[in-house]
Amino acid sequence: MSVQAWTFLFVALTFSLYIGIAVWSRVRSTRDFYVAGKHVPPLANGMATAADWMSAASFISMAGLISFIGRDGAFYLMGWTGGYVLLALLLAPYLRKFGKYTVPDFIGDRYYSRTARMVAVFCAIVISFVYACGQMQGAGIVFSRFLEVDLSHGVMIGMTIVFFYAVLGGMKGITYTQVAQYCVLIFAFMVPAIFISILMTGNVIPQVGFGSQLTEAFGGGYLLDRLDGLSEQLGFPTYTEGQRTTQDMFFITAALMIGTAGLPHVIIRFFTVPGVREARKSAGYALIFIAILYTTAPAVAAFARTNLINTVDNVEYSAMPEWFSKWETTGLIRFTDRNGDGRIQYTGDAATNELDVNRDIMVLANPEIAELPNWVVALVAAGGLAAALSTAAGLLLVISSAVSHDLLKRGYMPQISEREELLFARISIFMAVLVAGYFGINPPAYVAQVVAFAFGLAAASFFPAIVMGIFNRRMNRQGAVAGMVTGFVFTALYIIYFRFVNPAVDNADNWLFGISPEGIGALGALLNLLVAWTISRVTPEPPADVQALVADIRQPEVD
Amino acid sequence: MPGRNDDAYWKANIRLVLSLLAVWFLVSFGCGILLVDLLDNIRFGGFKLGFWMAQQGSILVFIVLILVYINRMDKLDARYRRSGADREDSA
Fold it and tell me: Shortest Cα distance from B55 to chain A (angstroms)?
C-alpha cells in the first residue's frame, strides 16, 4: 500500500473513533459541559492533560527546532516540563479544592471583584485564541502535505471534527477524545523514533540510543561526537554547545515554565477530577505521559540531524531520494546550486550553503529520510492531527466557558437559566471554532512567534495572581488587578515592540537585561508580583469571607 | 476559623513544597543552565553530563519530584484530616 493510502486509512480510522466518542459523550448540564461532571479518573485525566498540552508545536516542530539549535533546545524541554512541577505543587491541588469551573472563576471569587474576573476573562480569551489559531494551521499543514488536499479544506475538515465533539460533549467529549488522541499521538511519535534508533545505533530505546555508538553502517563512534564533528566540519555551531547567553536561557526557560503553569486550558483539566488527591495524582501521570515524548524528542532531533547531513551533504542532486523532491514541491526544502557542480553543499556559511531545510519538516520527513516502511510514515500524519485537534479543543472550551460562564452568567447576565447558559456555551464554542478556523486558513504573520506570545502572557498575568491568591492571604483586589494589568501590558508591549513595530532592533544589544522577547514573560511575572504586593500593602485587606475561603483552600481535603 | 492543627498542616506543606522546589531549581536552572559548561567536563557513555541534564536528566527529576510530592501529601493529609464535613463531590 502507498503512503497516501495508509495515511487515508489511519486518518479515517482515528476520526471515526473521535466521532464515536462524541456521540457517546453527549452532555446535558453545564457541570458536565465545563468540567466533565468532575468524574474523570486521574489516569485518564493524565492522558487528556498530556494530549491537551502537547500541541502541533510539540509534535511537529519541537524536535525539528532542537535539531537545528542543539543544546539550547533545552529551554523547550525543561520549560515545557518543569512547568508541571509548579502546576502540581503550587496550583492544581488548591484550585481543585476551590472547586469551581474556570480560571476567571477563581480570580473573580478570590478577588471579590467583577473587574478582576473580566480582566481574567480577557487574558484567557486572548491567550487561548492566539494558541488555537496555531493549532488549526498545524492541522492544515498535515492535511495539505499528507493527504494532498487544499490547506483551507484541511482546516475545514479539522474544524468540523472538533466542532462535532466539542459542541456535543463539551469537556466530557473533549476529555475522552483527548485520551484517544494521546494514544494515537504517542504511538505515532514513538514508532518511528524506535525504528530510527534501532537503525542507527542498534538500541531499542531512543533515549539510550541518543548516547550510544552508531552502527558500522553509519560509521561507528558515539552519535553525539559524530554530530559535533559533522557540525564543525560543515561550519555549523557545535551541536552539544550552547549559543544563547546564560541569562537569556535562564529567562526563556523560566517564562516557558511559568507560562505552562499559567495556561488556562491546562489548569482547567484539574477541575475535572473528583478531588484534591486525584488532582495531584493526575499531575504526576500527566508529566510522565508528557515526558515520554519530551525525552524522545531530543534523541529524534540528533538522529534526524545526523541522518539529514549524511544523506544530502556533497551528494549529487540527481541522486536524491523521492522524499526530497516531494518536500521540494511544498517549498519546505530548497536547493540552489551556487557553484554549479550538481552536488548539494550543506554548510553553516550563508555564502556557500546550497540547501534550506524548513525546521518543521524534520519530524514529518524523518521516517522517509530513514527509509522506514510506508505505514510508519503514514502514522505521523494521524499523530500530528491528533496533537493539533486535541489542543485546539481544549483551548476552544476555555474560550467558550469564559464567555458563557464568566462573562454572561457570573458577569452581565446572571438571570439566565442553566439551560440557557449551556446553549450560550455551545454557541460560543461554535463561534470560536469559526474564528480559529478563519485564522488557520488566513494566518496572521508570524504564527510561531504569536504562540510564544501566549506563554509570556500567561506567565505575566495568571500565574502570579493565582499563586498569590493561594499563598498570600493578605493579597487583595486592588493588588491583584494592578499586578495582572501591569504584567500583561508590559509583556505584550515588549513583544509587540521587538517583533512587530521595530524588528530591526530585535537583538541582544537592545534587549532589556539581554532578555529576548521569548523570555520577557518571566520578568513580566516578577513585575506583576512586585506591583501586586506593594499595592496590597497600602490598600485595605480582603473581607473576612474571602480570607476564610483562602484558609479553607489550605486545609486538607475531608473524605 | 483555622486552628493550630491547620497551621501545622500548612507549615509542613510549605516546607515540603519549598524543599522540592529547591531541587527543581537546582536540576533545571542550576545543572541545565548555570553550571552546564562545568558539568560538560564529565562524560558518561556518549553524553556530556551538562548536556544530558539539560535535555534528559532534569525532566526525569521533575517526575520524581511530583511523585514524592503525591506520596508525602497523601500521608500529610491522612495525618491531619478531620472528620465531619463530607466531600463536596458526591453528586
Answer: 5
